[in-house]
Amino acid sequence: MTKSTRPFSLEAKTRELHVDGNLVPLGARAFDVLAFLATHKDRVVSKQELLETVWGGLAVEEGNLSVQISTLRKLLGAGAIATVPGVGYKLTAGDGPAQVAPGPDLPDIPSLAVLPFANLTGQASQDYLVDGIVTELIGALSKISGLFTIAATSSFAYKGHAVHLPDVGQELGVRYVLEGSIQQSGQTLRISLLLVEAVTGRAIWSERFAGTLDEIFELQDRLTENVAAAIEPTLRSAEAIRSREKPRNDLRAYDLCLQVEPIIRETSKPADFACAFGLLDQAVALDPDYAYAKALRCWAYTGACAGRFISVKEAAHILPDAYGLLDSGTNDAATLTYAAHTVAYLDKGAEIGLVAIRKAKSLNPNSVSTLCSSGWIHAYLGQFETALVDIERALRLNPLDPSYGFGRSAFGIIMLGLGRTDDAINMLEQSYFEAPTYGSTVFSLLCGYWRAGRLDDAERMGRELLQINSKMTLRYTLESTPFKYPPLLQLFKDAMPACGIPEG
């Protein structure tokens, strides 16, 4: 797809716009927006800058700006003004055509990508709060069975980059794109949303919402219901009402969880996990009854073990929390997922974890983290065909995942289990390129290279694995691995010593 634009010229003195050589009527605000973008065509212009300049410092909602941008795109072509998610806009009319690789086919049901919202609070330190609200909204929308919602990590891959909405639609395979911004005054939040048809750039719905930080959960419910109804009135938006328990004692616990989520989702560094442990300890101390904080802490320790940054013994103290969450009767898919995977990985309890994962999938069939964990746990049990179905769906929901490759790493080990070594290596190399210090991927690549007869590459992975964890041994791996499939365990036994890993 190439971005479409129409040639235009602006006459500043007469305040006239000519498109394709013809005079086109244009409102004063839209003219000022276009003139400012044209003056600063060499850079991205923030939404805050446009609001302050064009509206002269008046207190206006960001939705007013969205309306003007939509008007200009109709006149100049959908590709004339690029969106920079989380920042603002860039005038691109007159730039050379850009080709976009074909993406996935459109699903049979309404499909949506929620782009990062612009932080108009005036405080860069609030980025995590803005991103957290977007992530929560995506999670809630993903619970609607009649709506295909792209995962947060793929949406956030566009943050800070100039994009054309038709290209986003094509790359992600979605029909609709949701943009937004968040303003804050004291404890009050004002959220502006704009729903756009990706192919045409046509705005089909916009709305403003307001609430206080103390009402953040209720505010997110309202956002979800209204977005779902705008896309397809028949969608059962009630499915998306939050089931996650709210913090009972202190909203600061929720704030800390928002800070932690991107850390453990997008890192493969031991220091970042250590930071996450500290923040989550604070969250649980502030609100000992906040189930999600406990679940997220379980997940952080499990992720650190999977990365080979800490040992199972160092993480085992978190298991009582995981079992307690599974016994609590919670109906929150994320809480169930994190607790289930913790039990499956740290306590070799894949059978127990699988029961909880099935419940989590019934609660939120479109959750990428739940689908990935389901794939991993089925793989632990040697059920590779079933695991592959979940992982392939997760990768379709999250095609641009910029994280450490949780899904792709699972795909790799599943391919090894199925005997498809070349496919395993191809996917694992992609995951390794993104995060070369993530131990799970390095370990699987070691096994894949060894089986393929690429001994030099396998030995290189062995050295890198020992750099990640100098105490790594075959004995520790066999004692701690959650995998129970005998042929895969035999592969570990054969490959590790041959690649320089001590037997222990």
Termini separation: 56 Å
Tally of structural domains: 3
Named CATH topology of the largest domain: Arc Repressor Mutant, subunit A
Strand composition percent: 5-15%
Q: What is the 3D shape?
A: globular
Task: Walk me through what this model shows.
The chain is α/β, with parallel strands linked by helices and 504 residues long. The chain contains 22 helices and 12 strands. The strands form 3 sheets. Strands 7, 8, 9, 10, 11 and 12 form a 6-stranded mixed β-sheet that branches. Strands 1-2-3 form a 3-stranded antiparallel β-sheet, with no helix packed on it. Helix 15 packs antiparallel against helix 16 and helix 17 runs parallel beside helix 19. The protein is globular, with a radius of gyration of 24 Å.
